[in-house]
Amino acid sequence: RQDSGRGEPKTLWGSSEPRPPAAGPGQPSPQQRTETLGFYESDRGRKKKRSLPDLSLLRFISAELTRGYFLEHNEAKYTERRERVYTCMRIPKELEKLMFFGIFLCLDAFLYVFTLLPLRVFLAMFRFITLPCYGLRDRRLLQPAQVCDILKGVILVICYFMMHYVDYSMMYHLIRGQSVIKLYIIYNMLEVADRLISSFGQDILDALYWTATEPKERKRAHIGVIPHFFMAVLYVFLHAILIMVQATTLNVAFNSHNKSLLTIMMSNNFVEIKGSVFKKFEKNNLFQMSNSDIKERFTNYVLLLIVCLRNMEQFSWNPDHLWVLFPDVCMVVASEIAVDIVKHAFITKFNDITADVYSEYRASLAFDLVSSRQKNAYTDYSDSVSRRMGFIPLPLAVLLIRVVTSSIKVQGVLAYVCVVLFYCGLISLKVLNSIVLLGKSCQYVKEAKMEEKLFNPVLTATPGKPAGKQQGTFKSTQGISTDENGSTSVTNQPVHQKENMPSLLVTSNSDQFLTTPDGEEKDISQDSSELKHRSAKKDLLEIDRFTICGNRID
């Protein structure tokens, strides 16, 4: 197409096409260059067609064998995979450290029932009897802790005498006559029932303690303690029977000839992996499950002790029979440890939780111990363990006392001397265990930098008293409270505070230590709305402690 003005050729888009330069001397013309280019293209096509038969199977295999790749191009992905492997390798060590610490916490609460609780009940009864001699200086006849100790002792004695009406031998032969499948189903039902009744039982005991110690304006209000007391006695008795059936079923499994029932009961632990590993867990959920595993492992140890006592009694305390039971006991313990390790390793792998979280769990348990040892503690240590782990020592202690007294006959002066020496040994073990646990707990709390949570940083001034005097009353020295005279106190009785005084009791902030999951930590301001939000969140965590011994169902 020609342009109307100049007559120059136009391209398809309307722009003028530059003219090709004139061919110089010795240079090919544009027509010759086009012919040459077409010749080379046709020659290249012919060469390509000729090289197709050269792609043989041998060259393909050679290329596959010599093909290379570079992992550093995806460095972040492979580094993450390597860290997961390292985490799985660290899980057994960190988990067993937590389990070891938690089992000794349960042992300390369990020994408290046999050693210090009888002495505390005796001191409380002595104070109650000799109170008219000293005069009534306070409105309360007994301190709240002394009232709770008396209630625990009375419940323990009543349930012990009620357990004498339960025939252990008849229960053993009744369970032994069932088939293996029935016993397997019964054992699974007993485990579920134990978790359910434990979660509800601690609520019953706490309701009894609060009903008996709360301030009452009228004397008639004390009558409400009676129904709570009967409910607590009924709970402890039923829970003790439930644990007795569990121990009897385990005893039948140990005494079976082909050990098939014992194998089935051990395989039940591996079924637990299926129900836990493939669920989504956060740090709080894993903490509750770890506490439940600690409680379950300690309970199994006590059940194995009861089984060994019953078997040794039947064989007239022959030490040779103990070596017959030893392999089965080791098998049950090893299977429990292996299941816990595998379960926690895969839970942390699937939910991207580091192994350092178990040191946080241990510090939280240590915080509960340290806070319960203070002068103005809000709860007893054994009750704190019961709420945190779902471990209630009263039913287990009732059953163990019943089995020991029926298996061992005490006759003669020398036998009573041995009993007294054994009791002194238990007290020594309890004191030594408490001292070591308290020292380790202070160390763990200090490493976790949770010392400032042991005391309220802000204290409100009481009307009529300056604020400086109150602040001087409470000083923080590694978790041990100091009074005005400078004397340190850990287990003294708390002083009853009046209603017009501000609350100086130490609140447990261990829940706030594990409140937010990974990746969601936020700065908390001092606004009133934020404080309300924190208190609501803390209340939810308080409720979660009592749901099926910490095993939350999502």
TrEMBL record:
Residues 24-33 have a biased composition (Low complexity). Keywords: Chondrogenesis, Membrane, Osteogenesis, Transmembrane, Transmembrane helix. InterPro entries: Tatp1 (IPR008010). GO terms for cellular component: ciliary basal body; endoplasmic reticulum membrane. Pfam families: DUF747 (PF05346). It is a multi-pass membrane protein. The chain crosses the membrane at residues 98-115, 149-166, 229-254, 391-408, 414-439. Residues 1-45, 461-536 are annotated as: Disordered. Residues 522-536 have a biased composition (Basic and acidic residues). Residues 470-495, 505-515 have a biased composition (Polar residues). This is TAPT1 protein.
